[in-house]
């Protein structure tokens, strides 16, 4: 079996809805393992859980800045930083 990680939501009827489609797989039955957060985990904010819309907006801004020459070239990014 091959594993694919994707997030989703369980509705009031107990039906699982995935946040994005699973692509490039043949139609077949699958096994599903659902991981529920612990009560203490829900209150914690995961720094890696940036909403997709926010990531896309950031990438669009960065691309626009790169196109207009507003970005610092990678070769110059570490200038002036002392690393021991």
Defining traits:
84 residues, alpha+beta, two-stranded antiparallel ribbon, 2 helices, 7% strand, elongated
**Helicity level:** 25-40%
Structural class, by secondary structure, is alpha+beta
Distance between the termini: 46 Å
In total, the number of strands is: 2
| Order of secondary-structure elements | EEHH
State the low-pLDDT regions, or none: none
Strands side by side in the biggest sheet: 1-2
Q: Assembly type of the shown chains?
A: single chain
Number of separate helices: 2
Beta content: 5-15%
Mean pLDDT: 83
Task: Tell the overall outline.
Answer: elongated
Radius of gyration: 20 Å
Largest sheet: 2 strands, antiparallel
Would you summarize the structure shown here?
This protein is α+β, with helices and mostly antiparallel strands and 84 residues long. The protein is built from 2 helices and 2 strands; from the N terminus they run E-E-H-H. The protein has a two-stranded antiparallel ribbon.
What topology emerges from the helices and strands here?
Blueprint: E1 8-10, E2 16-18, H1 39-43, H2 52-67
Antiparallel strand pairs: 1-2
Write up this protein:
A hairpin with a 5-residue loop joins strand 1 and strand 2. The protein contains two helices and two strands, in the order E-E-H-H. With 84 residues, the protein is of the alpha+beta class. 0% of the residues are buried. The mean pLDDT is 83.
């Amino acid at each position: 079996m091959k594993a694919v990680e994707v997030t989703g939501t369980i509705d009031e009827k107990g039906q699982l809805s995935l946040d994005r489609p699973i692509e490039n797989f043949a139609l077949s039955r699958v096994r599903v393992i659902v991981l529920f957060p612990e009560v203490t985990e829900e209150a914690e904010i995961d720094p890696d859980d940036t909403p997709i819309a926010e990531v896309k907006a950031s990438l669009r801004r960065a691309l626009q800045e790169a196109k207009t020459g507003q970005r610092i070239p990678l070769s110059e990014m570490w200038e002036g930083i002392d690393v021991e």
